[in-house]
Design a protein that fits this description.
This protein has two helices and three strands; from the N terminus they run βββαα. It has a three-stranded antiparallel sheet with strand order 1-2-3. The protein has helices at 43-48, 50-61; strands at 2-9, 16-25, 32-41. The longest helix is centred in the last third of the chain and has 12 residues, at 50-61. It has one domain. Strand 2 and strand 3 (32-41) form a beta hairpin. By secondary structure, it is of the alpha+beta class.
């Protein structure tokens, strides 16, 4: 199941980052067992400063 939630502040503008998550459920339980971060987003920075956004995300998290 995919979901989105707020995370720590964006390194460029300090607005909360949006985390895209993939939740894996167990066949034995309805509760999420594990969450995997599939992406981080800051709508303002990605639109206004796409090159800086990619560089900063690589430095902080090792991904884009």
């Amino acid at each position: 199941m995919n979901s989105t939630r707020y995370d720590e502040p964006c390194p460029l503008c300090h607005a909360p980052l949006l985390l895209d998550l993939l939740q894996v459920r167990s066949a034995r339980s309805d509760f999420p067992v594990a969450e995997r971060v599939t992406g981080r987003r800051c709508p303002g920075c990605q639109a206004a400063r796409p090159v800086w956004w990619v560089e900063v995300m690589r430095e902080h998290y090792g991904d884009t």
